[in-house]
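Attaching the record inline, Q. Sequence:
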Amino acid sequence: MRNEDNHFRILRLLEANPQLPQRAISRELGISLGAVNYCLKALAQKGYLKVKNFHASDNKRQYAYILTPAGLAQKASLTKRFLHRKLEEFELLKAEIRALEQEQEQQPDPSRTAGDIYKEFEGS
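Structure, as predicted:
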């Protein structure tokens, strides 16, 4: 998965649930915990996320990831590019399916045996 896709999906998850732990993000997106950590640091360094400790939490390693105005704008931009890429992939997939269906229609009937074909050949 591309870094841009990871960033988009992480921003999307955190907008809905800023207190989501990194392990939950990792499970949800199917990417490694290290990749999540790397992306979160990159997003914070770019100013797209603010990382805050929970003051009321007993677990001092639990954070809230708040999207900044720049983060919301970046998410909107990434959403547009993500959607455009997925629509292109969808169109390519539909074209490939059509080509396979046409190819399948041109294939000989698989229920015919070699003997049937030979009899047809002898009869002509």
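Residues 3-106 form a domain with the Arc Repressor Mutant, subunit A fold (CATH 1.10.10.10). The helical segments are 3-16, 22-29, 33-45, 69-106, 114-123.

More tomorrow.
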